[in-house]
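User: Sequence in, structure out. Go.
Assistant: Echoing your sequence, followed by the structure tokens.
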Amino acid sequence: MSVKFLMPPALMVLICIFFLYSPHNSPDILATLLFSCLDEQTSQAAKILANLGTPCLIHQPVYNMFNRWIEDKLLKVLEKEGMGCIVFSPLAQGLLTDKYIDGIPKNSRAASPHGFLQRDQITREKLGKVSKLNSMAHARDQSLAQLALAWVLRHESVTSALIGASNVAQIEDCIATLKNLHLSKEELKEIDTILLT
């Protein structure tokens, strides 16, 4: 059912959303608006949109414990520009869950010949880190997915996280993250030690 039939006509509002699915080499930034842009491109896109009277409200980069590129500059740019950040792949395509701790299940993303998470990305080194993070999550009375979500949501600029659930139990597990979003300085240091060694 479309939104048109759910909302009374008096409440209907036109909302334009522009997505950039990957930056390309076009000199025209309007042709490539906002999805996984680098910090310089984000600032440029925000300025162009502001000049057009269209605020840029949110950026959607990939961000998780194994892919931390936004920490260097992008989060500061988003804060400066007054933009939110809705991260995707906060669970690293399922790697930051307990799904792969005992190997690659037959019905998993990594077992598929296509997709973003490939079998060769699930290394012993990464699984060792996942296992340590899983133990840390259990010590916090959380699942690994909940710890990973709390970790990405710790930044004030990160307004939400997109999850890719395949069943209701996964959604319920992710929502339960809200019961414990706090990470102490010691816990953050422990996570960094696990990830960076």
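User: And one key feature?
Assistant: Residues 1-8, 11-16, 27-36 have pLDDT under 50 and may be disordered.
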